[in-house]
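Bit of a strange request maybe. I'm writing a small parser for structure token strings and I need a real example to test against, not something I typed by hand. Could someone generate the tokens for this chain?
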Amino acid sequence: MIQMNAMEYDPNCEPGVASCANTVAQAVVAPLTRAAIFLVMTINSGPDSRTVIRSFCEDIAGLVRAVGSRDIEGDLSCVIGIGSDAWNRLFGEPRPANLHPFREIRSGAHHAVSTPGDLLFHIRAKRMDLCFELATQIMARIGDVVSPEDEVHGFRYFDDRDIIGFVDGTENPREGAAMEAVLIGEEDRAFARGSYVIVQKYLHDLDGWNALSTEAQERIIGRTKLSDIELDDSTKPTSAHNALTTITEDGKEVKILRDNMPFGHAASREFGTYFIGYSRSPRRIEQMLENMFIGRPPGNYDRLLDFSRAVTGNLFFVPSATFLENAAEDLLASAASSTGSTAGKPAASLPPEKDGSLGIGSLKGDIQNE
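Reply from user aminoacidic:
Good idea to test on real output. This should exercise your parser:
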């Protein structure tokens, strides 16, 4: 498992800066694996939920080590993400600067839906049994205070291809570039070495897709199918998937880190891709989705959406491993300081978020610190 420690290079944290010096990231920048489980859950109402979840946050690293010790070469890891509403309930202020509910997108027949989800567990390993055992242990610990919203078991398909036959994740950044792309630095000092993650479950019309010629498929994706070579700009349509998901800021291409996985149920003819993208700012991924669903310019949408339908959509914040390890300790300190005149009072909550819907060409609600 790759997990950055305090001594490893981080281009976003200057030496001696308190917010970074002793902060360890979760295993966001981890090696690709053959198997993954994606668990999305909501937190039940009740007096014990907050205590149970915060206590579990402190223990997750030890649980991963215990299960992973069964095969030390299995590369078992787990990343925990926390949704906007859940953050209010679990931690309150301060909040990550750009955490908000996933903003749905509607444009004609295409719809990027927003679905319930307070917690994300992204479990990865070379072996599915390791993923399954860790998921089982997680549910044994917190199952009484959460309700499952979605569970997807992903697999690596042949030579890192999506189920539609194209190589996925070709343009992923690596090593230092990956850390720079996904780990928060001084732009949000209180949450340095955290990250944002957006997940969507897509279902494919595989019969319709396979009815297309290889050349037509390549024009939709923007790469050759067999050799995975990007099409030349002179022949690649501006609506190609890889054209619309290329984002530039100040003349420089900005990257996200994808770890998409195929999934499916052959008997029921369900074929899908679980999209998961990490970034130091959710705005990067949101811009990609706007380009796909609305178009750049509007109307020039991603033709892959004629064959792929998003059925879930969530945005989570991934705090540092150091933050999680201190969650229970901070809860006890908070409880101790609240005795006396504040005893028995509920934790402070934030005002409700806006509905988070996205109209064509514009976002409802403000995006902070972008």
